[in-house]
UniProtKB/TrEMBL annotation:
Residues 236-281 are annotated as: Disordered. This is SPOR domain-containing protein. GO terms for molecular function: peptidoglycan binding. The lineage of its organism: Bacteria, Pseudomonadati, Pseudomonadota, Gammaproteobacteria, Moraxellales. Keywords: Membrane, Transmembrane, Transmembrane helix. Residues 253-264, 270-281 have a biased composition (Polar residues). The keyword Cell inner membrane does not apply. The chain crosses the membrane at residues 14-33.
């Protein structure tokens, strides 16, 4: 049985092989008799309005196609960083470097941590000649450089370096440098610019003479107020009496009103209005 099954499988394999070879042979014959020059490209025309609406939109050529140029703005490298309430008053930025780029200064040392530089400055009571910058760049690690003084030329800076009286460790060697070399690496807003932007205004107060008080006018006004109060009290003390006469059916026959002063009355408390009805009429 096993031998017969194996023999039948071989026959099936030969049949598939012959069928595949026949298909390849007919494909070669069809390719040989077909002339590619007779092929004509036919453009299908839209038959309905629906097909016209779903046609692909033609996109005009543009330089930033698909780059989201308007949504994602390019980084402005000219923008200066502002860090308020972090630097000392001796911190300087691009304004100082641009104005003093031809001048010279004494570079005392460089550190990567600003806290070390601040600690050094706090140990010196006279900090008028100290300045420091923050150096950053694409290929430059962040550093803080401490400078001492500004000089017109190199000879003045070297002379000041020889007479320098700042106490430094033996491993620190200060040098005279031109400020222009820091220009590519400084992109900050200095403390001097922040102070200049916040203007202070002084308020000058002048003495103004007090108006003179006229006692006669005050007395006349006081008398007028007292008279008005007395008239109002007198009007409030007047009693108005209304007598209404009605007949047996309750119809109003006669109404009489009379006023009397409370001073002539037995009672000092007067009702503002009284209505008396005669029950016998």
């Amino acid at each position: 049985m096993v031998a017969l099954r194996t023999h039948w499988q071989q026959i099936q394999n030969y049949i598939w092989l012959v069928f595949g070879g026949a298909c390849l042979f007919f494909a070669l014959i069809f390719w040989a008799v077909t002339d590619t020059k007779e092929l004509v490209e036919v453009e299908k025309k839209a038959e309905t309005e629906v097909e016209l609406q779903i046609q692909p939109e033609k996109v005009s050529a543009m330089n930033h196609l698909g780059a989201l140029f308007d949504e994602v703005k390019p980084l402005d490298m000219t923008t200066r960083a502002v860090a308020t309430a972090q630097h000392e008053s001796e911190f300087r930025g691009t304004k100082f470097v641009n104005e003093q780029k031809k001048a010279y200064a004494i570079e005392l040392f460089r550190v990567s941590d600003e806290a070390i530089l601040k600690s050094f400055l706090k140990k010196h009571p006279d900090r008028s000649n100290f300045l420091y910058l923050r150096l950053t760049g694409e290929d430059h690690a962040e550093q803080y450089v401490l400078l001492y003084g500004t000089y017109r030329n190199s000879s003045d800076a070297k002379q000041a370096l020889a007479d320098l009286k700042v106490t430094l460790p033996a491993s620190v060697k200060p040098v005279a440098v031109q400020i222009e070399q820091y220009q590519p690496f400084v992109n900050d807003l200095g403390s001097d610019e922040l102070k200049a932007s916040s203007k202070l205004y002084a308020v000058n107060l002048k003495t103004a003479p007090l108006p003179k008080i006229d006692e006669a006018q005050i007395a006349a006004k006081r008398a007028e107020v007292q008279a008005q109060q007395a008239a109002a009290a007198k009007a409030a003390a007047t009693t108005t009496t209304t007598v209404t006469r009605r007949d047996a059916d309750g119809n109003v026959v006669n109404v009489q009103q009379s006023q009397s002063n409370a001073d002539t009355a037995h009672s000092k408390t007067a009702a503002p209005q009284q209505e008396v009805t005669d029950p016998f009429n």
